[in-house]
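Pasting as-is:
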Amino acid sequence: MDSPVLPKQPPLFISYLRVGKLLYISLGLFVAESYFFWRLFRSSIFHEQEIMQVLWFICFLFSFVHIFLVLMDGWSRFQNYKKIKDLFYQHGFKVRIAVNYKGSKCQRNAAIIAAEELGIGNDVQRLYKKLGIKNYHLLPDFF
């Protein structure tokens, strides 16, 4: 059996950024938000406002922790992308493979990008459209 011809592939770092594009936009927002809350926290220390110190510090911690959660989620989506790409390369477009990654926008994005890089992106997008999935369906199915 002949191996399928692999189209020219983008650098891995470019694929990493494409897969997590939405996540990295939110990463920038969480960094800015953390900086904003840190400044408010520092200001409340200067003005000796204990209740506001607690409030701004909790807000800062919330946004700061999300920076790391987004980074880990981005890495997880990249691992999905690599697995999906391997499966599509080995088996071609199979509905069973693509349906496993319809759960959230990030997973669908990983599947679509992997498929596009193998030249079968239209098939995956057509399947998701046939399943009634719209571009604005961002949250996982269980929500």
